[in-house]
Amino acid sequence: MSRMFCVLFAVVGAMLVAAGAHAEGYVSRVLNYPVPGGVAVVALGQDGQAPQVSYNKHPVLVMRDSDQQWIAVVGIGLKALPGSQTLKVSTERGSRNLAFTVGTKKYREQRITLKNKSQVNPDPEQLKRYEREFAAQTKAYAQFRDVLPSNVVLDRPVEGGRLSSPFGLRRFFNGEERNPHSGLDFAVPAGTRVKAPADGVVTIVDDYFFNGKTIFIDHGNGLVTMYCHLSAFDVVVGQSVKRGQLIGRVGSTGRATGPHLHWNVSLNNERVDPAIFIGAFQP
């Protein structure tokens, strides 16, 4: 009897473990890569009302996962230190702190030689232009439109092409270190169609010093995407776009050594690895 009981206990235990593994929601399984520059998907429970969540004083995307659990989809900045991080969670019953853990990830280096030296060290007028453009982008990233994104597992903005420069690269232009690569590059020919990876509202259509022809789309709840080095625009500021809609075409404008699309994804005002959202993340 004792042996039979042990076997039965082991079988039931295995079934419970399997059930627990499958209980995790779809978004949690697909997007949860809690490293610097990654995404943490944090379970919040199943209360009727959506909790309000903030991280580093910025509001966080909260949604129901496929298992009906409320989750916080948290963007983690590249400068975040590994270890315990804290969310502030507010419900009708009050506020509490909720901890989650950030792991480690090592990013590679990239060295680029540019013939146009002003794109490494801009002159005073160019620097003023860049500062104006940077301020406009900073404002766009900080928006938190109270609309849930149509989808958080995103479509690729271009078809085909290899992923060239990955997110997080330490970049050296003409031997001088600059900010890490804040997006993901797609090596595709000039003129390739660029499509919206989710529904949204266009917040920027402009030609920038470093980024070249640039589009920003606000998808709601702090999820913002950016598209750089375009050759043409097919949208205007304030326009609503649908998932899969043409927004522009690939080019090599701005600080670019050849045709490609530079794609940024931002969550709660933190630039995160776009590869996570298209199933191409490399731990």
Would you give an account of this structure?
With 283 residues, the protein is of the alpha+beta class. The chain folds into 2 domains: 77 residues, Sandwich (Immunoglobulin-like), CATH 2.60.40; 168 residues, Glucose Permease (Domain IIA). It has 3 helices and 20 strands. The strands form 4 sheets. Strands 9, 12, 13, 14, 15, 16, 17, 18, 19 and 20 form a 10-stranded antiparallel sheet that branches. Strand 10 and strand 11 form a beta hairpin. The longest helix is centred in the N-terminal third of the chain and has 22 residues. This is Peptidase M23-like protein. It comes from Eoetvoesiella caeni. Pfam families: Peptidase_M23, Peptidase_M23_N. Keywords: Signal. GO terms for molecular function: metalloendopeptidase activity.
Summary keywords:
283 residues, alpha+beta, Immunoglobulin-like, Glucose Permease (Domain IIA), ten-stranded antiparallel sheet, four-stranded antiparallel sheet, 3 helices, 38% strand, disordered N terminus
CATH topology of the largest domain: Glucose Permease (Domain IIA)
**Nearest-angstrom radius of gyration?**
21 Å
Silhouette? globular
Mean pLDDT: 88
Distance N terminus to C terminus? 47 Å
Low-confidence segments, given as residue ranges, are: 1-22
Q: Would you list the SSEs in sequence order as H and E?
A: HHEEEEEEEEHEEEEEEEEEEEE
**What is the CATH top level name of the largest domain?**
Mainly Beta
- Class of secondary structure makeup: alpha+beta
Number of domains: 2
Strand segment tally: 20
Largest sheet: 10 strands, antiparallel
CATH architecture of the largest domain: Distorted Sandwich
- Helix content class: 10-25%
Q: What is the CATH superfamily classification of the largest domain?
A: Glucose Permease (Domain IIA)
Number of helices: 3
Share in β-strands: 35-45%
